[in-house]
Design brief:
This protein is an alpha+beta fold. It has one domain: Bit1 (3-Layer(aba) Sandwich), CATH 3.40.1490. Helix content is about 30%, strand content about 15%. It contains seven helices and nine strands. Strands 1, 2, 3, 4 and 5 form a five-stranded mixed beta sheet that branches. It has a four-stranded mixed beta sheet with strand order 7-6-9-8, sandwiched between helices. Helix 1 packs parallel to helix 5.
C-alpha cells in the first residue's frame, strides 16, 4: 500500500481480514515521557502523539528516497500498527539516542521512531512498559479554536492514555492521507495544529456517518475488534453540511 488517500470504508485499521495481513508486519513505536513528579496532561499527550505521527510522515527522511522511506513503505503495506510505551529518567535519555523525532506539546513529550518488525524492537525500546500510561487532565480542555482540526474520540469507549494516543495517531494519519497536497502543505507549515476532544454522545453517530476519516480498531488490545474509536474532522475534508 502506498500513501494515497484511503477511503473511510477501507481503513487499514479495520478488523476484517485482507491481503495486507499476509505481508510482514511492522509497528510504529512511540514513546511518551512520563516522569513520576510531573506527568503530562492526558489531552496534551493525545494531541502531541497525533502531531508526532504527522511530523514523522511528512519528514523528508520518511518519503521518496529518504533513509526511513523503505521502512515506512513496508509498514504501510501491512497493518498500520502503532504501539505507545512510556519512559522516564534514564530510559527516556536512552530512547532519545535512537534515530527518531521528538515532538513537544504544552506538557507532553513524545518520540516517534521509524517502523520496526513486530517482533524486532530495539532493546532500548523493547524493555519499556506499555502499561502505566493512565493520565488525567488537571482541568477540562477548552473548546477547539475556529477552523481547528479536531480528532473526536468515541464517548462510549474507555481507553488508557497509551491506547488513545495510538488511536489519535491513526486518525491523524488517515486525515493526512486524504488531504490534497496544498492542504497538507498548509497544515505542515502551520505546525500541525489540532485538538483532541471527546464527542458529545448525541453527535458521535453523525460524525461516524459523515464521510470523515474514521478509525476502526483491529482489537489487538483493550477494546473489541471493529470498534470505532476516532473521527478525524479536518475542515478540508468535510463532505456534508454540519459534519
Amino acid at each position: 500500500m502506498n500513501s494515497e488517500p484511503t477511503p473511510a470504508g477501507d481503513s487499514p485499521f479495520r478488523s476484517a481480514s485482507e491481503a495486507r495481513d499476509s505481508a510482514p508486519q511492522f509497528v510504529l513505536p512511540l514513546v511518551v515521557r512520563i516522569e513520576r513528579s510531573a506527568p503530562p496532561a492526558r489531552t496534551d499527550a493525545l494531541e502531541t502523539s497525533a502531531r508526532a505521527v504527522l511530523v514523522f510522515l511528512s519528514d523528508e527522511r520518511s518519503v521518496g528516497e529518504g533513509e526511513w522511506a523503505q521502512a515506512v513503505r513496508d509498514w504501510q503495506d501491512a497493518r498500520i500498527r502503532k504501539v505507545v510505551r512510556r519512559a522516564r529518567g534514564a530510559e527516556w535519555r536512552r530512547a532519545q539516542e535512537l534515530p527518531g523525532i521528538t515532538v513537544t506539546g504544552k506538557s507532553a513529550e513524545v518520540r516517534v521512531f521509524p517502523p520496526v518488525p513486530l517482533d524486532g524492537w530495539p532493546k532500548e525500546l523493547a524493555k519499556l512498559q506499555v502499561s502505566g500510561t493512565d493520565l488525567d487532565d488537571p482541568e477540562p480542555p477548552v473548546a477547539p479554536g475556529p477552523g481547528e482540526p479536531v480528532l473526536w474520540l468515541n464517548p462510549d469507549l474507555d481507553m488508557s492514555a497509551g491506547k488513545a494516543m495510538a488511536q489519535t495517531g491513526h486518525a491523524a494519519q488517515l486525515a493526512w492521507w486524504e488531504l490534497p497536497d496544498a492542504e497538507r502543505d498548509a497544515w505542515r507549515a502551520a505546525g500541525f495544529p489540532l485538538a483532541v476532544r471527546t464527542a458529545d454522545p448525541a453527535r458521535w453517530r453523525a460524525l461516524t456517518e459523515s464521510g470523515l476519516p474514521l478509525v476502526r480498531d483491529a482489537g489487538f488490545t483493550e477494546i473489541a475488534p471493529g470498534s470505532c474509536t476516532v473521527v478525524a474532522d479536518h475542515p478540508a475534508l468535510r463532505r456534508t453540511p454540519g459534519a
